[in-house]
Write a structure and sequence with these properties.
The protein has 146 residues and is an alpha+beta fold. It folds into two domains: 53 residues, no CATH class; 80 residues, Glutaredoxin (3-Layer(aba) Sandwich), CATH 3.40.30. It is built from seven helices and four strands. Helix 2 packs antiparallel against helix 3 and helix 3 crosses helix 4. Bound molecules: FE2/S2 (inorganic) cluster.
Length: 146
């Protein structure tokens, strides 16, 4: 953390890189981590929490090995994201924000990921996938289930 903050003129400017570091090490950002970072940077815990909850890339709950972030904003909604979400729920037996019992899959619903040309689309861990249809979802799930 000292190495990261030393790169910034103001220590508090290192908030995002520190959150990435914690998530990389711990897998998620817990309330305790938020408190530790706030104390370390000398800023309010509520500020750290606002940042964590604003960016969907920061995880506050455990996720599956394969995490789907399905976009539900206009371009994706007009091209069928609701059907995609329903299909994922049926195939995995979970609702947004949940993890399958075997820990392999989780999914969430997010706002525009800036890849509207791929609508309907989702982020599958670090990859953008789209345009989606039920067959493509099935293939992704089957491939990740092996
Ligand atoms: S609306 Fe879905 S990526 Fe932009």
């Amino acid at each position: 953390m000292d190495k990261i903050t030393s790169q910034y003129e103001q220590k508090r400017a290192a908030l995002l890189p520190l959150l990435h570091l914690v998530q990389e090490k711990e897998g998620i950002i817990t309330a305790d981590s938020e408190k530790e970072i706030a104390a370390y940077l000398g800023i309010a815990v509520s500020h750290v929490h606002e940042v964590v909850s604003f960016y969907h890339l920061f995880r506050q709950k455990p996720q599956g090995k394969c995490h789907f972030s399905v976009c539900q904003t206009t371009a994706c909604a007009l091209r069928g994201s609701e059907d995609i979400i329903e299909h994922i729920e049926k195939r995995l037996g979970i609702k947004p924000g949940e993890v399958t019992a075997n820990g392999k899959f989780s999914f969430g619903v997010v706002e525009c990921l800036g890849a509207c040309e791929l609508a309907p689309m989702m982020q599958c861990n670090n990859d953008y996938v789209g345009p989606l249809n039920k067959k493509k979802i099935d293939e992704l799930i089957d491939k990740s289930n092996d």
